[in-house]
Amino acid sequence: xxxxxxxxxxxxxxxxxxxxxxxxxxxxxxxxxxxxxxxxxxxxxxxxxxxxxxxxxxxxxxxxxxxxxxxxxxxxxxxxxxxxxxxxxxxxxxxxxxxxxxxxxxxxxxxxxxxxxxxxxxxxxxx
Length: 127
Description:
Layout: E1 9-12, H1 16-28, E2 34-37, H2 40-49, E3 54-58, H3 66-75, E4 84-88, H4 93-102, E5 106-109, H5 114-124
Parallel strand pairs: 1-2, 1-3, 3-4, 4-5
Helix pairs in contact: 2-3
């Protein structure tokens, strides 16, 4: 079953250029309902107001990291089932393990392209 590209997606990154890159890749894949947040705190506020079908978050942000956002999402009953993909420039094994333990659905190491993003999204939605 193909992924429903009409779902709202939240891109969380403190680096505007990265937000633009991910937004463009998502558009290439057919997604059109894309919001963004500059850090985990802003993302959490947006997620309390709107139900997202997917969150794609950077790991390294201040004041709330993507990892802290993930833990907050997973501990919130109304948000905990939200599909969550973590993006990072570091492929440290301990980070991948920590994210998996915290309940991340998938993990992408920068840099990546549309094909990589598509395969990660497909894996999350069980395509």
